[in-house]
Amino acid sequence: MSVARAIVPEQPVLCLSELRFAYRGAEPPILDALSLDVAAGAFVAILGPSGGGKSTLLKLLAGLERPQSGTMTLAGTPIRGPRREIGMVFQKPTLLPWRTVRDNVLLPAAFASRASEAERARADHLIETVGLSHAAALYPGALSGGMAQRVGLARMLMHRPQLLLLDEPFSALDAMTRERLSLELQRIWMEERSTALFVTHSIPEALFLADRIVVLAGRPGRILADMDVPLPRPRTLDSLGAPEFARLASELRRLFDSSVAAGDAVR
Amino acid sequence: MRRLLDLLPPAATFLAIWAAWSYATGPGGLPSYLLPPPGAVARSLWDGLASGEFWPHIEFTLTATLSGYLLGSLAAVITGILVAESRLFERFVFPYIVAVQAMPKVALAPLILVWFGFGLASKVVLVGLICFFPLLVNTIGGIRRADPDLIAMARAFSRPGWWIFLHIKLPAAASAIFAGLEIGIVLALIGAVVGEFVASERGVGYLIGSATVNMNVAVMFAGVVILAAFGVLGSSLMRALQRRVVFWEGDRNDLPPAGRT
């Protein structure tokens, strides 16, 4: 990528402290006393069963919901609402059906008719990066599920965000497309060098993509485990067969099972 | 060629109805003061158009229908946007909208004639009132049903409220608004004709009314045919417009309409 960002390793860029969130005072809260520091440039997977508060955490970070208490800071500035330095991909493609692929990628800036030369060039570059140059002028109705999520990935990167939020972006895709897109996401992230938070309930997906896995579960959601994934990059689909991978996977699965049991006990 | 073939089945139906109608009104059939033969209807339609006798009536009805329709539709879309976007406005007016919506508007025709006179103005008001409510309800519903995930996405990308309204809610409501416009054009015609029935000196409704007094059933039928033609023309025009504007709904997503980029 053209812009090189100064990365100081191990320097937390995202700091969450004592976050608490509940919908309209409902008990128990969805998140309670959640604290997490994320180093700049890290790829962190938030892994956990449904209802563990993973998506809620991303909504708080995206500025779509406000926590009842606690603080969130990105690069030293508190997050009080949506910010340009944060890009997001959603579980559903959420593309505007009445706009072309190019306009959908440009959405965080302005549509093509209003966009600057630089913005248009950035959008075209991103569309090329996700392999959709041939589809730039198509409308979303003509895209497959995998293509639509690629557009979502490109759109997330439009403003060169410091922080990427990915809310189970591949969960609605078939297994083959999922693997291909995981590989592409790794490549794009290695090029852009942003900090990424990737919510998933798939252990292999978390292991394949992340430097660090945070297991979030229970009601209220809290961090059950926080582990590093010391597998070298770039990872390939063959990495999935490495013994280290298998060991980490079974360790996570044990944690996952106990967290589900704990979740049941709370209910 | 395909389009010609598509016209074949309805043409066959038309011929069958014509034949049955001719038979029923033929020798030993219904008397012509109850049901004139189709040939007589066609002839009186032709005579009325060729002699110029029908044209002032057609012009009057079209003027009343179109101006009332435009004003009523514009008011409906604007009010619909206000109700859908402002909770406060909604709380003030919505109960009354629901109440008036449930009322048959043609019952107001005599009152409106008293208020606005027997000329064009009263017909325009009645037409506007009749096509206002379906479009209002559709506009509100269309805007409210905009995909909340799309709205959350736009908010996450820091898009302001007016942008979300213009680029997400309004396009999302487009197909509901067009459905309201299509219903509206037919209702507008009903409004104009009812107004002309109650009190008027011109219009296709007046033509039918005065032909009734003279027991000129062929002219009555000619008037009905004219109104039917307007209705069909108007609603197919709206459908064609909808297909062009709301191009992303349906199966033609890969074919953007000409002129868009």
From TrEMBL, chain A:
Q: Which UniProt keywords apply?
A: ATP-binding, Hydrolase, Nucleotide-binding, Transport
A Pfam family matched in the record:
ABC_tran
- Statement: the UniProt record of this protein carries the keyword Transport: yes
GO molecular function terms noted in the UniProt entry? ATP binding; ATP hydrolysis activity
Its EC number(s): 3.6.3.-
Entry annotated with the keyword NAD: no
What family is this protein classified in? Belongs to the ABC transporter superfamily.
Its name, as the record gives it, is Aliphatic sulfonates import ATP-binding protein SsuB
Source organism: Methylobacterium symbioticum
UniProtKB/TrEMBL annotation, chain B:
**Chief localisation class:** membrane
**Source organism of the structure:** Methylobacterium symbioticum
**Signal peptide position in this chain?**
none
Q: What is this protein called?
A: Riboflavin transport system permease protein RibX
Carries keyword Protease?
no
Sequence intervals crossing the membrane: 66-84, 96-118, 124-143, 164-193, 213-234
InterPro entries, per the entry: MetI-like (IPR000515), MetI-like_sf (IPR035906)
The similarity comment for this entry is: Belongs to the binding-protein-dependent transport system permease family.
Entry keyword set: Cell membrane, Membrane, Transmembrane, Transmembrane helix, Transport
| An annotated GO BP | transmembrane transport
What residues does the ABC transmembrane type-1 domain cover?
Answer: 58-238
> Gene3D superfamilies recorded for this chain?
MetI-like
Q: Which domain of life is it from?
A: Bacteria
Which compartments is it annotated to reside in? Cell membrane
* A single cellular component GO annotation: plasma membrane
